[in-house]
């Protein structure tokens, strides 16, 4: 079978929101391997036995997929690429509320790490799929699944939960990585599986080095706050060029008025994962209370930015098409905000508006409400 036909089958499965395509993936991979070697290769995962889904087939476990990757990486690149595209399709589905990530994946960005880890204490199978990084952030894509532990309220929440992620380099230096926004999470009830796109500090400076990432503890959402399950999920790999992208920065320094306030667009950062508009304004400055404590209020511009935000129980933070907001237009196409990055802080007195990547950074316009249109050119 041709690779494009294989990928088309997987795409159809994911578009119908069928997250688990492993049975069909097993059959297709075995068929391709058979075409190459003149025989069919059957894979079994001896560590974690699985029940039969149908009498005629068995589910391919994540561990088995990892074994296949180890073999095929040296001998049959299309198989490796096909498995990566399966995972990319999960993270490109509507269940992930980060349009920037979805755009980057659709353009082929990211380094496939394809490693598995079994958390015995919590009976959770973890699969690290891929990683992307630039000067401002890193995306780590992973899934985790369990046969016995209900994962409905389990999350790797490094923004405000009990989880954290640390970087360990060759000189055994440990560095805690801060979150960049909330990240994105999707829970598949049928499969009891979580897809998580973690977003944290840039690791671009470690390109070409062997590094170790450690996820510590699982956040459990409870009615009265957060609980946790103790865990340590390690990932070791060499960060190569395929994970790394570069930002282009345009200094703008253009002012406009909105809501009786004055704002200045300082600069715009263009990357494969986002477009970041950096603004200062008469109501973006930090204030002090009577005790000298600093605080900030929501600016008029931020209120307009969030006006178009809609919280959907299935798809997370999405754009409400019936409401006005703040958008970009690039090459004639509307570019939506990434609301899951709404809490990313800028420098002192700055306000950041983060959108999906644009097609043409030299032809981009900021639209505030219905009437304000500002070309984002130098």
TrEMBL record:
Q: Which UniProt keywords apply?
A: Membrane, Transmembrane, Transmembrane helix
- Superkingdom field: Bacteria
Q: Does the keyword section mention Membrane? A: yes
Q: State which residue ranges cross the membrane.
A: 60-81
The DUF4179 domain sits at 53-145
Cross-referenced InterPro entries:
DUF4179
Q: Which organism is it from?
A: Peribacillus deserti
Write the protein's name.
DUF4179 domain-containing protein
């Amino acid at each position: 079978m041709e690779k494009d036909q294989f990928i088309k089958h997987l795409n159809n499965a994911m578009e119908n929101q069928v997250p688990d395509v492993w049975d069909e993936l097993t059959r297709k991979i075995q068929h391709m391997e058979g075409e190459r070697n003149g025989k069919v290769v059957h894979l079994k995962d001896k560590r974690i036995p699985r029940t039969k889904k149908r009498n005629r087939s068995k589910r391919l476990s994540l561990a088995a997929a990892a074994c296949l990757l180890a073999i095929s990486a040296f001998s049959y690149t299309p198989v490796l690429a096909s498995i990566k595209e399966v995972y990319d399709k999960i993270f490109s589905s509507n269940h992930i509320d980060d349009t920037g990530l979805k755009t980057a994946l659709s353009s082929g960005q990211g380094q496939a790490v394809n490693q598995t880890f079994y958390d015995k204490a919590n009976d959770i199978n973890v699969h690290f799929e891929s990683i992307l990084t630039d000067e401002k952030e890193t995306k780590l894509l992973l899934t985790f699944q369990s046969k016995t532990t209900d994962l409905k309220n389990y999350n790797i929440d490094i923004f405000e939960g009990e989880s954290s992620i640390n970087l360990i380099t060759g000189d055994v230096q440990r560095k805690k990585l801060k979150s960049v926004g909330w990240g994105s999470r999707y829970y598949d009830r049928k499969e009891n599986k979580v897809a998580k796109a973690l977003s944290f500090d840039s690791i671009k400076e470690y390109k070409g080095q062997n590094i170790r990432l450690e996820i510590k503890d699982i956040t459990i959402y409870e009615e009265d706050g957060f609980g946790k399950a103790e865990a340590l999920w390690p990932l070791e790999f060499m960060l190569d060029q395929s994970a790394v992208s570069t930002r282009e920065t345009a200094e703008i320094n253009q002012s406009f008025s909105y809501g009786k306030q004055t704002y200045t667009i300082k600069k715009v950062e263009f990357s494969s994962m986002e477009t970041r508009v950096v603004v200062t304004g008469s109501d973006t400055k930090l204030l002090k209370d009577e005790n000298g404590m600093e605080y900030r209020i929501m600016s008029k511009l931020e209120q307009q930015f969030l006006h178009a935000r809609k919280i959907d129980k299935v798809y997370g933070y999405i754009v409400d098409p019936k409401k006005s907001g703040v958008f970009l237009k690039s090459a004639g196409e509307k570019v939506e905000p990434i609301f899951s990055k709404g809490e990313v802080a800028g420098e002192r007195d700055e306000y950041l508006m983060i959108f999906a990547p644009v097609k043409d950074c030299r032809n981009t316009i900021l639209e505030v409400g219905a009437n304000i249109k500002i070309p984002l050119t130098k």
